[in-house]
């Protein structure tokens, strides 16, 4: 006998769920329905394990079928099934969760977190793509009749006896005309691969199992080999290089979290590397936009995070506000820091080999998280131009004796481009100074942070001043020129250069130093670097013209020669010396470069 009635909506819990409004992405319907089928199967498995069901379980699986001619999608399981009364209770009363009731009932039996559904809403996502939905089901309980439920998306339903012999449920979607894309097998396979790839019960589609029910993050690290981790990485990212190393996450208090995070080999385009961490809830894919779960500085990591504390219908606002998510964020930060420290202590050589790929993670973390800084300051590495690595403390000790200035300030010299700044690096090394390589995309910010954190320490780029001014000592160099000669030399250069953005000064230096040295002051250069890197209030610096210091070496023979040259030749030689300084800074181009070449040929010819 057919029964008719109205679906009861619990208005205090409901939000717009029918048709277009349950989820923003219509393909989610398949995730929800397959997840429900997995729930039913997991329940059956649980009841058998605790002795409440004594029959034959059979081969537990979920089957998805598409019938393009009949315009149907069918999701079948051999789980616990439902009676007509249970249909009325669990399906007709929207927002009443059968999974929640089951967990409550069997909470003392353990493993209750294996049940995916929690809100009783997912089933109705079917109406986003179907204009009629049917349920044909038979309960696992003895002497119960099978039932057939039908609804066209309104609040009316029909329920009648059915002819189903086996335990379980078939959900049949009669696909609407505006959703015909979901009748294509390729489309369904893509959705299953995205959302159901690691569901804990086998899912069959077109005669084959499409998922891995036992991904390695569900296992204990002691059960796994390095090869297992590498193979799983290939499963996640088939076209990527092997990872450097990984972290296995496993915590059950004060929140539940499992997962594996991989450190990849970084490419130049960081954006391509981002959004590679997949967020799951009980092995059901939720999203790969995890920046509120994973700290921003670790967004370049790859891998999987699975937490039952995060619901399937997760939103950005939920992630930002949820206390469990914040705890997970903190936990992941700590685990990453501990893992890096462990690798550093266990095998420093391997850590140094990986440094080029992981230094951005570490430096960004130190910049953005004080707790991470406190751990990372012991294993963050500085590399000098000779290729040798130091910890912060090691390097401070190494540089202390020779690079402490007259004010007791330790001066750490660095280059952002060892080739372009080679002459300046060489000048520093000639004074027995050591020079660091700080040339990554984040180093302009990292340098500023080090100066804030390290006492009585400053960092200067080797081309920001003449070598004597980089590390000022209590030494006075004598000039071979008197004051009048120095003023004359300055005027000659100012006329030859004829550029108001080049500030000329004459200073006594070593005769072995270059005749002319062009430098961009450290403050101005650093502000411009910060501007290029998106340094907030420093953006205006990017529009300001560069103002350089031009230092004329009073003790160089060329400058003494200029003073003795004929008047019509003074500026010509001065310009040649200035252009050589420009050339050493890769600042000579266009017509100025052409003029320099012609002048050089002319000077050689006259020799």
UniProtKB/TrEMBL annotation:
**What CDD domains does the annotation carry?**
HATPase_Hsp90-like
Q: What PROSITE patterns does the record tag this protein with? A: HSP90
Any keyword Secreted?
no
Alphabetical list of InterPro entries matching this protein: HATPase_C_sf, HATPase_dom, Heat_shock_protein_90_CS, HSP90_C, Hsp90_fam, Hsp90_N, Ribosomal_Su5_D2-typ_SF
Sorted alphabetically, the keyword list is:
ATP-binding, Chaperone, Nucleotide-binding
- Pinpoint the Histidine kinase/HSP90-like ATPase domain residues: 25-165
| Record NCBIfam families | PRK05218.1 (NF003555)
Family indicated by similarity:
Belongs to the heat shock protein 90 family.
Q: What is the name attached to this protein's record?
A: Molecular chaperone HtpG
Q: Which organism is it from?
A: Pontibacter aquaedesilientis
Report the gene name: htpG
């Amino acid at each position: 006998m057919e029964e008719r009635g109205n679906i009861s909506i619990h208005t205090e819990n409901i939000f717009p769920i029918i048709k277009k409004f349950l989820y923003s992405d219509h393909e989610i319907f398949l995730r929800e329905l397959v997840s429900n089928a997995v729930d039913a199967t997991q329940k059956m498995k649980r009841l058998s394990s605790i002795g409440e069901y004594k029959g034959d379980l059979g081969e537990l699986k979920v089957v998805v079928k598409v019938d393009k001619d009949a315009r149907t999608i069918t999701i079948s399981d051999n789980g616990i099934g439902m009676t007509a009364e249970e249909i009325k209770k669990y399906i007709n009363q929207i927002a009443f969760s059968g999974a929640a009731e089951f967990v409550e009932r069997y909470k003392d039996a353990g493993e209750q977190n294996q049940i995916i559904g929690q809100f009783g809403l997912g089933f109705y996502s079917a109406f986003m793509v179907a204009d009629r939905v049917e349920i044909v089901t038979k309960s696992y309980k003895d002497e119960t009749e099978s039932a057939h439920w039908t609804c066209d998306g309104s609040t009316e339903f029909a329920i009648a006896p059915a002819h189903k012999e086996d335990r379980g449920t078939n959900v049949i979607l009669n696909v609407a005309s505006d959703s015909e894309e979901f009748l294509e097998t390729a489309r369904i396979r893509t959705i299953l691969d995205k959302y159901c790839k690691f569901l804990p019960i086998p899912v069959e589609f077109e005669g084959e199992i499409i998922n891995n029910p036992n991904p390695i993050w569900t296992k204990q690290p002691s059960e796994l080999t390095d090869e297992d981790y590498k193979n799983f990485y290939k499963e996640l990212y088939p076209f990527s290089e092997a990872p450097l190393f990984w972290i296995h996450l496993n915590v059950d208090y004060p929140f539940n979290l499992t997962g594996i995070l991989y450190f990849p080999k970084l490419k130049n385009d960081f954006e391509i590397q981002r959004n590679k961490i997949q967020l799951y809830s009980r092995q059901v894919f939720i999203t790969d936009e995890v920046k509120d779960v994973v700290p921003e500085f670790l967004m370049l990591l790859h891998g999987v995070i699975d937490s039952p504390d995060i619901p399937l219908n997760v939103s950005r606002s939920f992630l930002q506000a949820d206390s469990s998510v914040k705890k997970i964020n903190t936990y992941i930060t700590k685990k990453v820091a501990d893992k890096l420290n462990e690798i550093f202590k266990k095998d420093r050589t391997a850590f140094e080999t990986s440094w080029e790929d992981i230094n951005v993670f570490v430096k960004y973390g130190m910049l953005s998280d004080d707790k991470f800084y406190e751990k990372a300051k012991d294993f963050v590495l500085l590399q000098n131009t000779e290729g040798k690595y130091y910890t912060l403390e090691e390097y401070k000790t190494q540089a202390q004796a020779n690079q402490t200035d007259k004010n007791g300030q330790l001066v750490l010299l660095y280059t952002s481009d060892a080739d372009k700044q080679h002459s300046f690096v060489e000048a520093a090394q000639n004074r027995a100074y050591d020079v660091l390589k700080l040339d990554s995309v984040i180093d302009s910010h990292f340098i500023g942070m080090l100066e804030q954190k390290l006492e009585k320490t400053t960092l200067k780029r080797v081309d920001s001043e003449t070598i004597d001014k980089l590390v000022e000592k209590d030494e006075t160099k004598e000039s071979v020129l008197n004051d009048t000669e120095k003023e004359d030399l300055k005027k000659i250069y100012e006329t030859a250069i004829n550029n108001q953005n080049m500030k000329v000064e004459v200073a006594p230096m070593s005769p072995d130093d270059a005749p002319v040295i062009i430098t961009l002051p450290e403050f101005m250069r650093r502000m411009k670097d910060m501007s290029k890197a998106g340094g907030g209030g420093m953006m205006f610096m990017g529009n300001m013209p560069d103002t350089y210091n031009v230092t004329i070496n009073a003790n160089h023979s060329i400058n003494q020669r200029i003073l003795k040259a004929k008047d019509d030749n003074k500026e010509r030689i001065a310009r040649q010396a200035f252009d050589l300084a420009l050339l050493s800074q890769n600042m000579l181009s266009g017509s100025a470069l052409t003029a320099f070449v012609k002048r050089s040929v002319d000077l050689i010819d006259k020799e």
